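Repro:
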Amino acid sequence: MAENLVNTFVTLVIENSDYEELDRIYLTNKVFALVGEGVADVETDSSELIDLKDQLLQAGVKAGSVGELNEEQDIIGAQLMDLITPSPSLVNRNFWDTYKSNPEQAIADFYDLSKRNDYVKVKAIAQNIAYKAPTKYGDLEITINLSKPEKDPKAIAAAKNAVASDYPKCQLCMENEGYLGRINHPARSNHRVIRFQMEDKEWGFQYSPYAYFNEHSIFFYGQHEPMKISDLTFERLLSIVEEFPGYFAGSNADLPIVGGSILTHEHYQGGRHTFPMEIAEVEETFSFEGFPEVEAGIVNWPMSVIRIKSREKESLLALSSKILAAWRTYSDPEVGILAESDGTPHHTITPIARKRDGQYELDLVLRDNQTSEEHPDGVYHPHADVQHIKKENIGLIEVMGLAILPPRLKSELKEVEDFLLDKCEAVAPIHQEWAEQLKENHPEVTAASAEALVRQSVADIFARVLEDAGVYKTDNAGRQAFKRFLNEVGLVD
């Protein structure tokens, strides 16, 4: 039986917060202040808090009291969900009180809150297309990212005309906690950050609103300072995996082309997810001079990965620092490896940390951001012939074997399937050559097999994308060149 929408929403706010029945009138007026009194008589059959929030927004739009743009609705929606979100001080107090006896429960409770109050956009994330497919490097994970709504042209125009503001300085700054939002900056009224200390400085722990994997987390410095890969990076990553049990922690590289999307704020990513690269085996093990307690090896992976692990944390840190220092200045022109050009540095590392079975583990992925006349987007970047699938930078998540592909592919891949089945004569020009090759190589394709064929081909192309990003290729010449660098570090024969 249909119930009053506002009353139902307020009832669930009371059930999911510290508010009591005595607060009902106060909460009702809070809701009216946000979505307008014109929604007072709207009814609902829903019983889920986030669904009710969405219905309130839709009713507000219909009544003319809520704007039509997604950005305007997000600002009000976040304020509605803030009603069930404890204050930052209480969230932190609860987290650390629980952490004393059960760290994993403290993390689970914070994640549950972040989903329950719609900061982590569970409904939107569920729209993503995600699957695994086998390749010669093991199963790779493919995601077509559909969770973020596309920008309305009106919103783009409004953002251009918006008053300039540098508060917060970026989307990772601590000042985002509770920030109302504006047309060109996301709503954060329901955002909460767990504070923790590293090197006697304040850091923040939060979840990613549009998560790409399970419990996708961000660990960020309390001050707005640029990202930098340094000896401190390895120490911080190992500290994070100690403090947040069950999580990996990694960093994007700190140079353009090979770096992530936000290089202006020092931060790391983590979460509770086993990536394909973690499962990939080491081709051969070896050790480095002066580090007998550290086991090392080259990972069987399309990118150039040195895996080092040890129970001795300080030894692992010292070796990772030595590898970074060596790579920063290492050149091997015979295979196109240049540390710098005209004073511009090219070399850095994408590091990933884990703690497993009492051992610390670091995967150090060698990166090089050179460009050339042949490859103006980047020598170690997806080459032109695979950019119809993936053109963007290869950041931390892709490095580990999870493809984050653009929304356009949802319709474009369906068009390729139709082309294979003779339902259309052509596809988007960027896919035409690929579609014709698929058709020629698979004349047996049927309506039942077309989707699987296209999906497998996308995974194979993503493997090629990672090979393009690999500094040392996986052939014999590439492995020999890789060993030359390792010898420079001090490989034990």
